[in-house]
Automatic annotation (TrEMBL):
Pfam families to which the protein is assigned, alphabetical: GntR, UTRA
MF terms (GO), sorted A to Z: DNA binding; DNA-binding transcription factor activity
PROSITE patterns: HTH_GNTR (PS50949)
Gene3D superfamilies named in the record: Chorismate lyase-like, Winged helix-like DNA-binding domain superfamily/Winged helix DNA-binding domain
Transmembrane segments annotated in the record for this chain: none
Protein name: GntR family transcriptional regulator
Species of the source: Solihabitans fulvus
Any one biological process term the GO annotation gives: negative regulation of DNA-templated transcription
């Protein structure tokens, strides 16, 4: 009985935290804004003030809010949060947080797959792939570089698109290629000379790297990507739970994910 009660309590505070985070990401509470008080939120969700305090603690640990004794919690300025609890394309996520997504193709070529690409895409020696390098922008500002390898059959579809204006993931879904699972590996790396040029930053500035492998409903890899983000523009959130054995939002090496 105690375990059941504890699980219910965790679910309640996560729901409050998730709702507040979503409101912050959506811009309903801007940087410097005060969140509702503990008593207001407790009444709104019909929970105890202790549950609300747990939700605030979770958001404070993520760097989303700050608190001062005797004062309401304040929203901190910072990067837009992208949750790994959902498999969303960059374009759909950007629109959800009130930004205008855009892309600029740097290169799209069909070539022999490298050893790493063959491994991650589970294709044979001598296979050909399509490789896309594209800069993604939020409201005109470059914030991410995606370098994605597609198996030949998928890449041929991508080659027929206009990646400057289309969401590749959403268009592929219309064509019957579904991104249903992904694994991610995220770390920090120094910006290369090319990264710096494309993102308009200094070389060797620390940036976030996401290595992602996405698969379709049958488990067949449909992309292998190494994306690089400006850390002051985008941050990632992850919700873990003892009730779930795996985090299925997006890909990684032996990884990785996030839809484009």
């Amino acid at each position: 009985m105690t375990d059941s009660r504890d699980h219910e309590q965790r679910s309640l505070y996560r729901r409050v935290a998730d709702d507040l985070r979503a409101d912050i990401v959506a811009g309903n509470y801007g940087a410097g804004a005060s969140l509702p008080s503990e008593s207001e939120l407790a009444a709104r969700y019909d929970v105890s003030r202790g549950t609300v305090r747990q939700a605030f603690s979770a958001l404070r640990a993520e760097g989303v809010i700050a608190s001062r004794r005797g004062a309401r919690r304040i929203v901190l300025s910072g990067p837009r949060l992208q949750s790994f609890t959902e498999l969303l394309s960059f374009s759909r996520w950007a629109r959800a947080v009130g930004e205008e997504p855009a892309g600029r193709v740097v290169s799209l070529e069909r070539r022999d797959a490298t050893a790493l690409e063959r491994e991650q895409l589970n294709i044979a020696d001598g296979s050909r792939i399509y490789h896309l390098t594209r800069v993604r922008m939020l409201s005109g500002r470059p914030v991410m570089i995606e370098r994605t390898a597609y198996p030949d059959r998928v890449g041929a579809l991508v080659a027929g698109m206009d990646p400057d204006i289309e969401s590749i993931t959403e268009r592929l879904a219309e064509l019957g290629v579904l991104f249903t699972d992904a694994e991610h590996i995220i770390d920090a790396v120094p910006a290369s000379t090319e990264d710096a040029r494309l993102l308009d930053v200094r070389p060797r500035v620390p940036i976030l790297r996401e290595r992602r492998r996405s698969t379709d409903p049958s488990g067949t890899p449909v992309e292998w990507s190494e994306d690089r983000y400006l850390g002051d523009a985008v941050a990632f959130t992850v919700h873990n739970s003892v009730a779930a054995n795996a985090l299925s939002r997006q890909p990684g090496p032996g990884p990785s994910t996030k839809a484009r």
